[in-house]
């Protein structure tokens, strides 16, 4: 009986794993706020941006790949428990990603947004194919940094290596190194642990109450070993710290954008604007165009700089047609530095405060 049983029947019910219909928003996702339910149903936010299937695919690849890698780690850590190994042997294929696809309410809004940002960055890097004006890290380092500072060249090479891991093509259920910030790593790891614990409990080979502490111990070992400094976001921040005051040179930011180093550009902008680089990257990929304009103006960007920035963002913003860019460029001319600084000042507020305020504004209409 167990061999013929679906691993996901009790978790999924009649829901199809690859279907994200609006009916889920009205029924199966009622446990979460409606706005987040819509995000989950379409795997893309519902704040007026059109759905971009390429970005959805990249987001799912990052999310599924990281989750599958965590599941593999947990399975290996549990192999020394014969009863657990026997239970998992009934489902030799990865189960966490299919379970999450069927039960997306396991995902929190912040983690989903982070994965969308990762997907957007990798999509832009892949769309442009490679850096302009050079084919290797050495030529890029020569154009970005002084030739007599090999440490900076090595830091840039480390960033490119980390970015390269995001660009490796694979299916959604193929493992990807989970180089996440510690908080998001923990959230996704507990999701994987819960999915595995659920199917182990279903097996009936071990008391249900005994499963949780064993799976928790395996997850805790992964948490201890996790090093968030290995990711490209951390690598970009580390490179900017090494630059020190040289990071404030306007030409360096322009060169980073020219060479399609979007995370380096975000880190440089974040330093100047006193914002987290991940938040800057998130705004570039998914934020309203008005926020992108405010960032550019607060950084001292000219009308030409803003047009170049919008052109660079086209892979993740398909609505930026030539006509739209012309219109946005005209609006940018009317945006004052004072207005931009005020917008950026509001964006510096804690994410929780901004989220609650946005929620109250939506309620008020």
What would your notes on this structure say?
- With 365 residues, the chain is mostly helical.
- The protein folds into two domains: 50-274, no CATH class; 288-365.
- The protein has helices spanning 9-12, 22-26, 34-42, 53-77, 82-89, 96-102, 109-128, 137-144, 150-167, 182-203, 208-225, 232-243, 250-258, 262-273, 277-286, 289-298, 303-312, 322-333, 337-347, 351-364.
Short description:
By secondary structure, the chain is an all-alpha fold. The chain has 2 domains: 225 residues, no CATH class; 78 residues. It has 20 helices and no strands.
N-to-C SSE string, H for helix and E for strand: HHHHHHHHHHHHHHHHHHHH
The count of strands amounts to: 0
Number of domains: 2
Instruction: Evaluate the radius of gyration.
Output: 22 Å
- What is the overall number of helices? 20
Low-confidence stretches: 1-29, 44-50, 130-138
Largest sheet: none
Based on helices, strands and strand pairing, what is the structural class? mainly alpha
Beta-strand content: under 5%
Overall mean confidence score, pLDDT: 82
Helix content: 55-70%
Shape: globular
Termini separation comes to 54 Å
Pfam families: DUF2336 (PF10098)
Protein name: DUF2336 domain-containing protein
Organism: Sphingobium fuliginis (strain ATCC 27551)
InterPro entries: DUF2336
């Amino acid at each position: 009986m167990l061999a013929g049983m679906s691993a996901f029947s009790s978790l999924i019910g009649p829901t199809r794993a690859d279907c994200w219909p609006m009916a889920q928003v009205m029924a199966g996702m009622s446990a979460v706020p409606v706005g987040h339910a819509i995000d989950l149903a379409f795997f893309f936010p519902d704040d007026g941006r059109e759905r971009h299937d390429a970005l959805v695919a990249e987001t799912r690849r990052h999310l599924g790949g990281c989750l599958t890698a965590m599941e593999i780690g947990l399975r290996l850590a549990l192999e020394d428990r014969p009863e657990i190994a026997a239970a998992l042997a009934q489902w030799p294929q990865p189960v966490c990603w299919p379970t999450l696809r069927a039960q997306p309410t396991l995902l929190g809004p912040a983690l989903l947004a982070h994965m969308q940002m990762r997907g957007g960055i990798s999509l832009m890097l892949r769309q442009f194919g490679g850096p302009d004006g050079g084919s290797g890290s050495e030529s890029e380092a020569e154009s970005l940094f002084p030739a007599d500072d090999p440490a900076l060249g090595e830091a840039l090479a480390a960033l490119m290596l980390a970015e390269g891991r995001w660009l490796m093509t694979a299916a959604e259920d193929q493992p990807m190194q989970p180089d996440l910030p510690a908080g998001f790593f923990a959230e996704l790891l507990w999701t994987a642990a819960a999915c595995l614990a659920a199917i182990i409990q279903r097996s009936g080979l071990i008391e249900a109450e005994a499963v949780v502490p064993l799976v928790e111990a395996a997850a805790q070992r992964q948490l201890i070993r996790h090093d968030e400094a290995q990711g490209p976001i951390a690598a970009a921040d580390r490179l900017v710290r090494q630059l020190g005051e040289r990071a404030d040179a306007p030409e360096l930011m322009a060169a980073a954008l020219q060479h399609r180093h979007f995370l380096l550009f975000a880190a440089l902008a974040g330093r100047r604007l006193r914002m987290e680089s991940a938040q800057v990257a998130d705004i570039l990929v998914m934020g309203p165009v008005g926020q992108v304009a405010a960032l550019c103006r607060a950084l001292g960007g000219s009308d030409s700089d803003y047009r170049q920035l919008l052109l660079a963002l086209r892979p993740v913003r398909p609505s930026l047609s030539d006509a739209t860019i012309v219109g946005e460029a005209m609006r940018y001319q009317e945006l004052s530095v004072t207005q931009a600084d005020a917008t950026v000042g509001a964006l510096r507020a804690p994410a929780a405060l901004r989220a609650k305020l946005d929620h109250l504004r939506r309620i008020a209409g």
